[in-house]
Amino acid sequence: MNKLKFVRRKFMNWLDNGDALAAIGQFLAEDIGRGDITTSSTVPPEVRGMGRLLAKEYLVICGLEVAEAVFLHLDSEISEIETTFSDGDEVEEGTVFGTLKGYADVLLTGERVALNLLQRMSGVATLTRQYVKAVEGTGAAIVDTRKTTPGLRMLEKYAVTIGGGKNHRMGLDDGVLIKDNHIALAGGITEAVQAAKNSVGHLHKIEVANWAQLREAIEAGADIVMLDNQTPDEAAKLVQMSRDLNPAVLIEASGGMDLDRVRSFAEAGVDLISVGRITHSARAVDISFKIQTL
Asked: Kind and range of the H or E element at 267?
């Protein structure tokens, strides 16, 4: 099973169990508080309506099931989102990519939370898709980081895979990434790598974020070496050095990965390019939810 399928399955499990409803319930409670006083004072409870999801700019759709789950949390009898699109589809400005029918007060009350999540997830997927297209044809993969919004990590990392990227560590328990502070406290790179190899399971990858001592890291048994804040030319030299030492070691480039320079690192021969901005700086895309009476 590849990593993408694993993450999608993990995400779907999250949607299917109580974690999703608990999280969505918290999101709704934050917004609704003691009640939607505007809707309850202006819209009769028996009125039914239809909401239309409209893309107001080009975007990669992501989060249809999450948006649907928001409304279902408020009313289990509401219809599913009717759509011919799926997460991962690209749509142009002006495209209606989904409709939802139910009581109008439910649609109004859930609108903002549903849109916030859908816009955020689609924004991450859209930016990720731009990065993936920028390195198309090279051997490099775009991967995310732990620089996610607290409480939204699973959704944002799912959005990265929908955009065509891959997930790095899901959390601190998902892999070993030895950085300078670990090295200093462990007494050196060799000591840190050996301690990790003796402690964690054989399925865990060991990554060292210290390009200056690349040879020592590889000889100590690191599976991945991160090249942080290098130029493309410097990265190319370090990639070649790594290949000569151990062709099986993966090389990851990181730090300041703007869209206009990411391809130069891919062409330098790195295997992975980690981009924090695809989650921490993705712009929420513009989606509207227009409701009309039935």
From this structure: helix 262-267
- Pull the structure tokens for residue 78: 């509401």
Residue for token pair 């000569």: 244
Indicate the Cα dihedral angle 276, 125, 162, 224, nearest 10°. -10
Q: What are phi and psi of 191, to 5 degrees?
A: -65, -45
Reference 278, options 59, 62, 132; nearest CA is: 132
**Successive 10-residue mean pLDDT values, the chain, 294 residues:** 51 60 89 96 96 98 94 92 95 98 97 98 98 97 96 92 93 89 93 91 78 89 92 94 95 94 97 97 97 96
Edge-first strand order for the sheet with 176-178 is 141-143, 272-274, 250-254, 224-228, 206-208, 176-178
Tell me the C-alpha distance between 71 and 78, whole Å.
7
Say how far apart CA 249 and CA 227 lie, in whole Å.
13
Contacts of 3 (CB under 8 A, 6+ apart): 166, 167
Angle subtended by helix axes 18-32 and 3-16, to nearest 10: 60
Q: Report the residue count for the chain.
A: 294
Nearest to 290 by CA among 78, 126, 94, 122: 94
Q: Which residues are catalytic?
A: 112, 147, 179, 207, 228
Q: Is 26 exposed, middle or buried (0-12, 13-18, 19+ CB in 10 A)?
A: exposed
Global confidence as pTM: 0.92
Name the residue among 233, 259, 263, 4 with its Cα closest to residue 135. 263
